[in-house]
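Budget justification aside, the reviewers requested a transparent look at the raw inputs and outputs of the sequence design task funded under Objective 1. We therefore reproduce one unedited record. The lines immediately below are the structure tokens for a 299-residue chain.
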């Protein structure tokens, strides 16, 4: 026996049979057949070189060696079950730390946060917002919500939630608003376009989808983060490129205008969870987010 221990599956089968005083009962508890438990006990007896059960009429009874092993294994498995239960409870009580872009948090997540906490009260959600590049492998983060294009990394469990759609938006307060509302797409070629320095290609992606030449676009003021870009657009400073999800409420309310609509990109809003730190709460959060996003798209 390696390290002085017999096969653990055999010990588990024996412990259940000894505790219940029934091989049939052990088979039912372990969800295996009577024969499987009998074989495991025989394997354990062979490994120890001792008989653990003896015939007793149509049933079996423990030998002296079997009673000693019953007491020792019972204590060990009880302790293991208790510790596993404690660890599971500690995991459930630990906060679920969700990293996400600050712009997504402010414009979409926070208005729904109260409902999320009511509907998933045991999530113990803790939010970590950033407008920089999000690292889904960062220590202390349970999951990351972000826009990205597949393929997904092999070390991540990724739950795709919603396709990304982007388009130009501007405020009614913008100096060119009246003319731009009725102009065709070519009008944007003469506009210095607001953009984020972290995703300068967004305008080019949109232009390619619309059949325009990206090199004809003129990039104007750049902003480090999307949140600032959207604030600049809302202040009437010019035309910005924005994800539909983050400006949908502003467009519906007339605070922003989107006369040319939105086009789909290859990116997806997805929940990323490191496989090395899998948390079963992530799937429930992903289901909730997907349902909310579907309602947002339908409204």
């Amino acid at each position: 026996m390696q390290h002085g221990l017999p096969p653990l599956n055999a010990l588990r089968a024996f412990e259940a049979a000894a505790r219940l005083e029934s091989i049939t009962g052990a088979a039912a508890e372990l969800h295996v057949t009577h024969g499987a438990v009998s074989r495991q006990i025989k394997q354990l007896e062979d490994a120890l070189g001792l008989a653990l059960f003896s015939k007793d009429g149509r049933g079996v009874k423990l030998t002296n060696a079997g009673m000693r092993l019953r007491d020792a294994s019972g204590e060990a498995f009880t302790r293991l079950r208790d510790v596993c239960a404690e660890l599971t409870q500690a995991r459930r009580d630990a906060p679920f730390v969700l990293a996400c872009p600050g712009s997504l948090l402010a414009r979409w997540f926070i208005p729904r946060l109260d409902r999320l906490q009511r509907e998933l009260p045991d999530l113990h959600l803790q939010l970590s917002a950033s407008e920089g590049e999000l690292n889904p492998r960062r220590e202390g983060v349970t999951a990351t919500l972000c826009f990205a294009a597949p393929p997904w990394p092999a070390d991540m469990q990724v739950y795709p939630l919603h396709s990304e759609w982007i388009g130009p938006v501007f405020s009614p307060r913008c100096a060119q608003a009246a003319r731009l509302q009725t102009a065709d797409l070519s009008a944007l070629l003469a506009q210095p376009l607001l953009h984020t320095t972290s995703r300068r290609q967004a305008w080019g992606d949109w232009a390619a989808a619309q059949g325009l030449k990206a090199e004809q676009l003129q990039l104007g003021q750049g902003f480090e983060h999307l949140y600032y870009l959207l604030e600049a657009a809302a202040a009437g400073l010019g035309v910005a490129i924005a994800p539909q999800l983050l400006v949908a409420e502003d467009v519906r309310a007339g605070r922003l205008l989107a006369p040319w609509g939105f086009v789909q990109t290859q990116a997806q809003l997805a929940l990323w969870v490191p496989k090395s730190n899998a948390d079963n709460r992530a799937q429930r959060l992903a289901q909730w987010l997907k349902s909310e996003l579907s309602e947002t798209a339908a409204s």
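The mean pLDDT is 87. The chain has three domains: 2-93, 99-161+271-298, 164-266. Computational costs for records of this kind are itemized in the attached budget.
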